[in-house]
Amino acid sequence: MADRAIDPQQCRGSLIDVLIRGQKLLGAAWFNTGGESPRLLVDRLATPALEIATVRPWLESQLASLAGNESSVTISECPHVRQLSAIFVPVDPFADGTEVLVALVVNGKPSVGIEAVFSAQALGQEWNRWVARRLTQIRTSQLQETAAVLELVQRLDACPTLREASQTLCDSFVESLRCQFVAVGLTKEGSAISRLVAISGLSDFDTRSPQVRILESALNDSGERNAISQFPTLDGSSGNPLALKRLSEVMGVEAILAISFWDRDTRIGSLVCGGAATDLFLGSIERLLRVAAPSIATSLRSVARGEGRPWRQNSSDSRRRRMLAQGAIASGVTLLLAGILMLPMSYRLSCHCEVEPTTRRVSLAPYDGLLETTFAEPGDLVREGELLARMETRDIEWELAGIEAEKQRAAKERDTHSAGHEVAKSILSELELQRLQTREALLKFQLENMEIRSPIDGVILTGSLDRREHSPVTIGQALYEISPLESVRIEVAIPAAEIPHVRTGMSVSILIDGQPETPLRGTVQRISPLSEIRNDRNVFVAEVTIVNTEDRLRPGMEGTAKITSDPHPIAWNLFHRPWEVLKTTFWF
């Protein structure tokens, strides 16, 4: 609420209302103690309990007793009303104690009193901030007005004739202020009548037209020195409102402002401007006219004195020489810039890149069977020979037990046939026994090799088998894909439009996402002859091999690669892409 206040009194009222509502005080007031007696600025003591005739005099006496000690918070109990205390908080932004906030609280609620003290101090700080912002706004506005006046005076002094200066004055006001039209009239020496000299937006006009006569009537009735005439009229305004009213009707504007220019006791001329009432009366136009009027009068008189004199011609020659010098400087700067743009510089193109393994090794299922247990997941670092998974041995053990029984049966049959001199049947039984022994050896070999181990040191890329335990696998089925980490391959996606500027052997600087402190460097070793679609872009993939120190790089990481290409002029590096796009778009 304080931020929306436009004047100090409104800000004080808003702040004190917030304090009363937030702390539920009995009342509050804002006093100015800078005079002989305290002066009430904001009164929020309209409570039946506080209408006692002794309360207000007691507050004023307390303020008088605090004279010279307003820099600190003071709490005083009222002798006339039970359980009533007053908190006196200095809130003056300049720390001279001339403004004091008084908050009335109940003695029986100490927490309320403490909160009221802190809230009142915070309110004082908010008041100080508002005053500081207000002063800053006022000073900024004054500086802007001063700068505008200085710029206008400089432009007027550069004009060789009064007519040109008047036209510059009209056009400058229309350009910088929100006016629909501006007209300037000048008064000849020895005459009290102003004649129209310039109108904004018009370089020539008919001096006998009715509109010009109405404008001159308004210019001649523009009021006394340092006074502004306006329509619609306000209390205290000067000038002839009838002439301004008629001008507003003819020009089709809502409001008119008129002011005369005086240099000492001599009237130089007048100015009228028209536009919307909100722009003319509520904006800064009126204040700017008052500030600029004396400087404008001095500049116009200076132009009038120098019009047609030799030094004015010398001034024109000086301006011409200055313009020639400025042109020479501009030409020199242009040539220097062109020379810089022609300097050769290596062309660097930025591309997206991704880390890929240099080689891949696969761990396969040795036999048909069931997985018993898995010990690794994708992303795990493994060493050569490290156990990855184990297959179930139950089926093989059962089969071995059956083969052992069949071996005993075959051996007895062989012995029986040998005893009966049945040579053929004895040989068949011997062969069956050998077959069973071979099968037994194979099963024992499988039983000894039911563990799946890593063939190399590296990282597991694929093979999420944590949910596939006790599931069947077939011989030769890929269970894990493992890649070594000693070196990795960086795949750089070169846009198809930039591929003519890249060849093998060019240096590459790589920055991986998440590792900006350690850029990698390498060279382009291979460029794919076929384009690919990556991220909806047509690219050619270039390969760069990087030694992976400390295992910081993992397959799948992404980053940015900058390829240093052949040197070209700086202008070519900056503008060749837009030029190629234009050529492709317009086909020439």
Detailed description of the structure:
This protein is α+β, with helices and mostly antiparallel strands. It has 4 domains: 8-134, Beta-Lactamase, CATH 3.30.450; 158-307, Beta-Lactamase (2-Layer Sandwich); 361-482, RNA polymerase II/Efflux pump adaptor protein, barrel-sandwich hybrid domain (OB fold (Dihydrolipoamide Acetyltransferase, E2P), Beta Barrel); 485-586, Efflux pump adaptor protein, beta barrel domain (Elongation Factor Tu (Ef-tu), domain 3, Beta Barrel), CATH 2.40.30. Helix content is 41%, strand content 28%. The chain is built from 12 helices and 25 strands. It has helices spanning 8-23, 55-65, 110-157, 162-176, 210-220, 241-251, 277-281, 285-306, 310-341, 394-419, 423-448, 570-586, and strands spanning 27-32, 39-44, 74-77, 84-90, 99-106, 181-187, 194-199, 228-231, 255-263, 266-275, 344-357, 361-364, 369-374, 381-382, 387-391, 451-453, 458-462, 472-473, 478-483, 487-495, 507-512, 520-523, 526-534, 537-547, 558-569. The strands form 5 sheets. It has a 7-stranded antiparallel β-sheet with strand order 22-21-25-11-20-24-23. It has a 5-stranded antiparallel β-sheet with strand order 2-1-5-4-3, sandwiched between helices. A 5-stranded antiparallel β-sheet has the order 7-6-10-9-8, sandwiched between helices. Helix 3 (110-157) runs parallel beside helix 8. The protein is elongated. Mean pLDDT is 77; it is low at 309-315.
